[in-house]
Structure formats: C-alpha cells, structure tokens
Amino acid sequence: MDSQESERLACKVIVTIPYATPVVGVVFKPMVRVLGINSFQPPQHDITFTWYREQITCSVHHHKLATTQCMTCVALDMPVKESYFCSNQCFLDMWPQHKACHCRTTESVSKGSNNCYRLRGRLRRSGFWANSGIGSVFGESETLVEREGKTWITVGSSETYVPSLNDFGFCLMFESLAVDCSCGFPMSEITSIMTDPVIIPPHPCPRRMIQIQHLKEYRNIVFESQSSNADTFSVLSYNILSDIYAYWSVHSKCPGWALAWEYRRENLLHEIIGYDADIICLQEVQSDHFENYFKPKLTKRGYSVTYKKKAMQLYTANRYISDGCATFFRHDRFKEITKYELEFDKTALSVIERLEPGKRAQGQIRLKKGNIALVIILERVETGSSLGAFQPRICVANTHIHANPDFPDVKLFQVASLVNGLEKIAQSQIPLLVCGDMNSLPGSDPHKFLVTGRIYPASKQERTDPLGIYRLLKLQHSIPLVSAYSSLLHSGRVNEDEEKKMNQETKEPLFTNLFGGYPATLDYIFHTVRTIWRLKVFWSFWTLKLFKQALCRQPYPPPPQDPWHQAVPQS
C-alpha cells in the first residue's frame, strides 16, 4: 500500500450482526459503524454494501460449480446440497437415480408421519419428470467472485437483505466499505462478516383455545336472560415483548433469529388479527414500532387507536427509544368518549412528599420507574336499529406494572393508584375492564387488592415496604372486580385436563408467561362482576380473550375530568 493510498484510509468500519442465522423471508440488517482512525469522528464519507451467497459445487461432479437446482428436492425438504448440478445435462443424466431419491424420501417420511399425503402431493405437483424440476441457480444480476478461497455469488448491494429460497442452506457474507463522497476512492479497508446457513423457519404452532359458552349464575355474578338486542364484544390483552428487551442473554432458550423483531412482528400481527377482537390492549409496544407498523397495519383493518409511551426512555442504536401501551378498538363498533393517561411517576410525588425527610431522596429513586396506564371510555356506535337510543359505555384500562420482583411496594403502589382512579369512574355506573401485564403473581398483594378490594399489610414490612409507603396508600376499594381466568374456572365448564393447569387456591392459571425457564402468571383481564349478562371466554395460557356485555341502560353522568388528581390520599 503506497503512502497516498494509506492517507485515504481515514476510516474504520465495524460490522456486527444481530444473530448468526438468517431466515428466509425475514429482513436481515447488520449494524454498521464508521469510526475515524485519527479521531473518533470520521471524515465525510459514503458507505457501500455488498451481499454474497456461498456457491456450492455439483452433487455429482464435485470439482465443478453448480448452476442448476432440482426444485422437487426443495419441495420435499431434502438436503439442499443434493439438489444441485453443474448443468441441465448433468441433471438429466442423473434423473433415474435422482428420482429414486425422491421416492425414498417420501416413503421414509410417510412411515413416521401423518403428513404422507401432503408429501405425496408435493411430489406430484413438482413432477416426476426431469424437465419439470429444473431451476437456475443464477439470476440476471448475479456474478461470481472469489473471497477467502471460496466462490461466492453477488446477491445484493443494500444495507439490508431478505434471504429467499435460493439462499436456503447456504451461508451469506456481508461486506462494507467507506468511500470518498466525491470520487469514490476507498477510505477504509473492506470489512466482512459471514453468517450461518440460511434456514426456513418452522411454522408457528397455533394456540389451542377453549371456548366457554352458556354460563350459569355463580358466586355474586349476575346474569340476565339474553334479549333480542344482545350485543357482545371481545377483548384481547397481550404483552408482545418490546424489541429493546429481547436480549438473547435474557431469553437464552430462544434462538436469536426467533427473537429478531423482523421475524416476530409478522407472527405477532398474524396472531393478533386472527383473534378478530373488538378491543385490543397491547403492552410493551415500542414507540417506533407503533408508528411504523402496528398503527398503520391495524388502522387499515378498521381499528382506531390510542397510545401512551412510558415516561422513561432507553438509549440504543444511537437513539432514544421507549415502549408503552396501545389500545385499539373497532371504529365501526365504538367511539372514544374520554381518554386518561396515567403516569405513575406523577402520582408518586404526593407519596414522596409525605415520606420522612430522610427517605424522600430514596423514594424518588424507588418509586419513579416510568410505568404508565392508558384508560379510555368507549361508547357503542349507533346503528340503524339503535339510532337515538341510549348507547352503553365501557371503560378499558390498559397497563404495564413495574417488573422487578425486588420492588413489591412499587407494584402495589402502581396498582392502587390505578384502581383508586378507576373507582371514581365506576361511580358513574360504567362497567370496567382492567387489562395488562401486572407483573404480580396470584395471591400477591397487588392481586389480592384487585380481587378482594382490600389488603391488610403486616405490621413489619421491612422487606416488602422499606420506605413505609403502605401506610400512605388507600388500600381498599369498592369495585367488584373478578379475573377472567377465575370466572372461567368457576363456570364449571373446564374439563379435567384443563383444570389441572389452574391453581386451585388462586383460581388462576399456573402460568401466562415463561421467562428464563420459569413459568409464572403475570397477565390478567379483570372485569366488574355485576355488569355482565352474557359471558364467553376464549383463553390459552398465553393470551386472554374475553366477551362481555354491559347491563347498565341509563344515561351516564359526565366522566370525571381527572380521576387521578391526588389519587393516593393518606388513609
């Protein structure tokens, strides 16, 4: 390298990849950073990107590069390297023996699988004759290059790449280079990184839902006979795991490619849409994903939306990002009457002010965690048969409570703050739904407070209440709340196998969440019990779906302007 060329190399390119295994159909985006060699800030530059796919040799003539692929092998999920040939003539010459491999694969799989008819159907559709199964390995824009003693095919020139079926089974290589903006001279050495072979992801297993119908009266829940103008609606609550928390070190039992947002978002949307809920409460919705993905996707499907992000932000990938709660509702069924945005950090101020002076600084750190709740009052949209008539309302609260198990006092404070404000709304005879990730186990203080209406903290709470805030909270309420899961168990419609998956003491499922290999019940839908006349529950151990109808048939008084103004008065 001469001195003139060395002077141009004023930059250093650093490339990392989010996970090692690319997935067919999923955007793969490396992270590229350019640093200056003599200073942290690099000089002005452009960046070039090049993607390569590993080129394979012929399965017959191993010293020759493959140019043709048998598409029947792809259809039958046969080993990809056995499907390549150096020419069409090579493929035709080997067709009798190769066709026998197809038949053996079909027979061997069908003996141990119930999918034999599907596999035979694949084979028939692909064809038994040679000419029907030939595919070219090369596209019009693909060229061959030599890198590190291997032959590679150029397949892309952008920062991101979406692997196709042609890439299945092959490694990819990504190269990046900083160049001068004006003349295009290199300003860095070429930086490259290679992936593992591209995979086709397994099809997500559908959730097994249990439908409960024709429930009878039980406990203190009042059911009235179904009238001719019956109207039901469905509610879905789902913590979708924000990408900023999807660390492989935390979710080590999940492969890296399955944690990638580009892969998860399609499956999440498909599942959410599949439930066809009238009201959708999502937690851990990343702010940019809400604006760029969920909001436009669900708006196109007839939903209106309201969103509240957390008060705290995380700095990642050279920007600040936050997550929050999003509530969607079908605009042909509901209209928004009032919205409340609750920031627990603000309600914490009145509690902190009443702490002993020496504990107030610690209270600022302990109680202010950035969590929020989003509360909306919805009214049924008038239809042709109900024009001019009273339209029922429902109040939907969507929240995500602080997660750290070492802060039980913070969890109880946040839940109590939410419920104390909802109690004021309930005085308007509006039925309530409380949806979300409570991060609280059944039988814990927050859970007991929700379902029993009060808790009696022990006299000594050094471990759970180190600041002594319990004495400052209003730890009783008059809202008759019941868990949707508990309603299901009490219905008498749960079969014996499913009942074994329920905790007989708490009447909640054994788990709604699997984190780090440890199952736990953290997610709930609570509803007011004397406001329902028809109840149907669809449930799994990961998702809640609740059908319900309000009884109230009288005009409502105006909703309170600020139910959370000084929402945690001293007892």
What does it look like?
The structure is a single chain. The protein is of the alpha+beta class and 571 residues long. 23% of the residues lie in helices and 26% in strands. It has a seven-stranded mixed beta sheet, sandwiched between helices. Helix 4 packs antiparallel against helix 5 (116-126), helix 9 packs antiparallel against helix 10 (360-367) and helix 11 packs parallel to helix 12. It starts with a helix and ends in a 23-residue tail after the last strand.
Give descriptors for this structure.
571 residues, alpha+beta, 7-stranded mixed beta sheet, 27 strands, 26% strand, globular
**Which radius of gyration do the C-alpha atoms yield?**
30 Å
What is the averaged pLDDT score?
Answer: 80
Oligomer: single chain
Q: How many helical elements?
A: 14
| Inertia-based shape | globular
Strand order of the largest sheet: 11-26-27-12-13-17-14
Low-pLDDT segments: 114-132, 212-230, 532-554, 566-571
Strand and helix layout:
Elements: H1 3-8, E1 11-16, E2 31-36, E3 46-54, E4 68-70, H2 71-75, E5 84-85, H3 88-93, H4 95-111, H5 116-126, E6 134-136, E7 144-147, E8 150-156, E9 172-179, E10 191-194, E11 210-212, E12 233-239, H6 256-259, H7 261-275, E13 279-286, H8 287-299, E14 303-309, E15 314-316, E16 319-321, E17 323-330, E18 334-343, H9 344-353, H10 360-367, E19 372-380, E20 393-400, H11 408-426, E21 432-437, H12 445-452, E22 481-483, H13 484-490, H14 496-499, E23 513-515, E24 518-520, E25 523-528, E26 536-539, E27 544-548
Parallel strand pairs: 12-13, 20-21
Antiparallel strand pairs: 1-2, 3-8, 3-9, 4-5, 4-6, 7-8, 9-10, 11-26, 12-27, 13-17, 14-17, 15-16, 18-19, 19-20, 21-25, 22-25, 23-24, 26-27
Helix pairs in contact: 4-5, 9-10, 11-12
